[in-house]
Amino acid sequence: MSLVRPLRLLLLGAPGSGKGTQTSRLLKQFPLIQSLSSGDILRSQIAAGTDVGKLASSYIKNGQLVPDATMVSLISNQLEQNSWLNKETSWLLDGFPRTVEQAAALNGVLESADANLNLVVELDVDQKVILERIEARWVHLPSGRVYNLDYNPPKVPYKDDLTGDPLTKREDDTAEVFQRRLDKYNQEIVPLKEFYDRRGILSKVSGNTSDIIYPKLSQLLLDEFGH
Length: 227
Known about the structure:
single chain; alpha/beta; Rossmann fold; five-stranded parallel β-sheet; two-stranded antiparallel ribbon; 7 strands; 48% helix
């Protein structure tokens, strides 16, 4: 089965809820869907030393969020460069927007191109489970590939599968630090969900592992956009 009409999807979920994993599985099952990750864009801009990258890096190094206007501009420009600002192309956003202010600004850009989001899915994962995952999480920083020692371990311990580079334990990947990120997410997600619920495009899939969530997510897409 495949999609018969264009899908413009936003995945919502707490940090550590598995949005990247779900995205990878969706792209394999539905080749027509293309993905845009705000984290990947930020990393590429920073690595390239662009003006936006330098600006973003200065905020990140100080532990601050990149301003909404900068993020909206970054995402909008990328959508335009990819020629996705139309009603025929299927794509999904991962990691943006995070706040209702970002959502409203992005909505204005998409609306003017007749390319509004037509599905928003919240990945509902028990946050106690997320904290347990975080303690076991290691990352290949250059690519952003994430491993978990419990359920998605690297083939060689503490080495990236593709490059063999050593993996890194990020400073904020501890339960204490990560709880603060979850607290902030919990504050921001309510108005963001209300924003999309008012537009009639919000759904939710629940589960504590990728293997539980993914079949539900896949079926939701097929029910709404497949045949």
